Amino acid sequence: MTSPIDPNWMDRCLELAARAQGRTAPNPMVGSVVLQGDQVLGAGFHPGAGQPHAEVFALRAAGEQARGSTLYVNLEPCNHYGRTPPCTEAILQAGVARVVVGMVDPDPRVSGGGIERLRTNGIEVIVGVQEAACQQLNEAFVHRVTQKRPFGILKYAMTLDGHIAAPTGHSFWVTGEAARTEVHRLRSICDAVIVGSNTVRQDNPQLTCRLEAGRNPLRIVMSRSLNLPEKAHLWDTATAPTLVLTEANPDPSKLQPDTHGQQLRQQFRQLLEKQGVEVVELDLLTPKTALDYLYSRGLLTVLWECGGTLAAQAIREGTVQKLLAFIAPKIIGGSGFTPVADLGFTEMTQALQLKQLQVRQLGQDWLFEGYL
User: Fold this and answer.
1) Does the predicted model carry a pTM greater than 0.90?
2) At what angle do helices 54-62 and 87-94 cross, to 10 degrees?
3) Residues 287, 304: Cα–Cα separation, whole Å
4) Per-residue exposure over 167-203, b if at least 16 CB sit within 10 Å of its own CB, e if not
5) Catalytic residue among 15, 55, 64, 177
6) 124 is an active site residue
7) What is the pLDDT of residues 7-42, one digit of tens each?
């Protein structure tokens, strides 16, 4: 039977879980609380892959007092052996009487099995408390498990008349400090940020998080030809790791305009690797193949901070699930650069409509956030 206090304690689990945002890949964010009456006996969250799960931390803190208690957790307790033993075993051994679960785990290895085992052993299990909030917190994990691909976020900043840069390519800064701070926060909670070679050549970005105690994502450059500048902020791997994705045998017309294009590619690859940049060749380089590869590396969330051409391709290939558009109250005029290039649409009725749209003001700028 549900209790009026259950939603409040599930909210507490979500607060605990979010402390590890951006650090748990490929695992979900999970928080847990052990309660006896109105007394908190223990609480904890999962800090990262390979470390104990949230329920274990909470039960350790509760100790012997956990017998007969209620355990709250925002995701179904696991019931299989991975890097750590199953949480259902720890719950049974602790003598917990009641478990309140926010959402069922979509992972086929769990997916109801943990709940069933607890109920079979006489524990009362309540499922679905604050389920929508639990789903949203772990939307990237759910997407990764169900689609076998990281969750993609496209972010861009543009003027009121739809330009991400002046006709000359100059783009610093479209938005103000508050919006840029939000971008740094976003980078901190994403596993990787992706750009194309044009962005590296034109903007020489750092793609780091400049917030105190922030976390730098893996910086990824997609480049078929490796026609990239020899000096760039992204090659400074002492600041943050950088991965360059390229093609094993690219179309010769896309290589540098030199008869020794393949030789130059090899020389440039060696130059990058000497600086600590990882270079990986894929048979075919597209947003889809890039994310398939990043899935194999255990990533949960990737942030597309690319130009319009790559952004359009990422959308067309279904590798963008969420969009964040920062809009500055400025007009630059001219032809300029747009955030998303040609999608092949010819009529307004074909336009992609954002769902679950949220709008908020950041300084003088506005952020439109929604799902494709």
Assistant:
1) yes
2) 20
3) 10
4) eeeebeebbbeebbebbeebbbbbbbbbbbbbbbeeb
5) 55
6) no
7) 999 999 999 999 999 999 999 999 999 999 989 999
